[in-house]
Amino acid sequence: MNRYYNPVHTIQGAGCLNCLPDVLEKMQPKNRRVLVLAWSEKVFEHTVFSKLSDFEVKTVVFEASNPTVAQLYQCYQETKEFDPDTVVAIGGGSILDVGKSLCCMYGKEISEEDALREMIQNKEFGCPKVRWIGVPTTAGTGSEVTCWATIWDPARDAKRSVESKENYAYAALVDPRLTEGMPLKLAVSSALDAAAHGVESYWAKGTNCVSRALALQGIRIIMNHMEDLLSEKSQAHDAMARGSMLAGLAFSNTKTTACHSISYPLTMRYGIPHGAAVSMLLAPLLQMNAQSVDGMPELLDALNVTDANMLKQRISSYLIRSGQPDTLRGWGVEQEALSHLAELGMTKGRADNNPVKITAEKIKEILESVY
């Protein structure tokens, strides 16, 4: 049975950040207190913030990538007294994940970091007190249209997921102008992450006909404009923003699978950018899953490849040409670490969402194939 649900009011197009005041008015926040969480002070130079005089606005800069439980708790401590009605998160996936996580935390007394960790583990958030608006400044995570957030926990050697089906954004403003200043490495890594979202949504156990249609279109847009992105052509930014949004809408209902599961310890242990880590795993997982995926010809067509080997060559080319290694060795991973990384790659809710059963032994084979 096919079921699809996504309640986010999605606005996409150049300049759509200017819709923020109208969107806030339509939300009708009771106390009109808005927390704006952004990746840099320069975000607040945008003229739209001069139009928020009817609201009480608190601005906070959060600069960390791959936010940890400790960093999330610190941000909660610094902002809880403001007691916002609305959180506007402006940035990459890290900012959006922190913004939506805070919405689940406000209105609760969280005494210490371990209490937050336990709350995340036990999924004890309940219905969020605060609603949020997502404004992505990278084209890759799709976090603005999903209801979960990735929070890292290096102190416990784990990746956490803040999940609440009531925590979809009220609105997403997907403005490609905000992505134009991205460094090429980040732009390519983000685009490949978005492509992986589409691919994994397409073959996930919980896939559905709507997610599949969104996934194919998102993948096609991204892969057809990778050369434009590498050539730093202006039209690439709008294409990647659209492709990432569509892929985000696709996996908002299906979650991701083994590619993301295996990638998490690579990012946490070695600092490999998430999109680069995920993309290196796409080809071997495509090879492994191919016989168990209905509609494989359509997926290959959207990827603009004929088989897994061709996909591996394409992704390697994109990474190398953007100044990034295309192997684990190139990223400084020790070969003797592969067995432990394979064990850490068995992430609940992701590895078991793969169409083919994944084991630590299979993960080690995959890691060796990209070493």
Outline of this structure?
By secondary structure, the protein is of the alpha/beta class. 45% of the residues lie in helices and 12% in strands.
Question: How does this structure look, described?
Answer:
Strand 6 (148-153) and strand 7 form a beta hairpin. The chain starts with 8 loop residues before the first strand and ends with a helix. The strands form 2 sheets. The chain has a 6-stranded parallel β-sheet with strand order 1-8-5-4-2-3, sandwiched between helices. The chain has helices spanning 20-27, 69-79, 93-105, 113-122, 184-203, 209-224, 226-230, 235-251, 258-270, 274-289, 296-303, 308-321, 338-344, 360-369; strands at 9-12, 33-38, 56-61, 86-91, 131-136, 148-153, 158-163, 171-174. The protein is of the alpha/beta class and 371 residues long. It is built from 14 helices and 8 strands. The chain has 2 domains: 9-177, 3-Layer(aba) Sandwich (Rossmann fold), CATH 3.40.50; 180-369, Dehydroquinate synthase-like - alpha domain (Dehydroquinate synthase-like, alpha domain, Up-down Bundle). The mean pLDDT is 96.
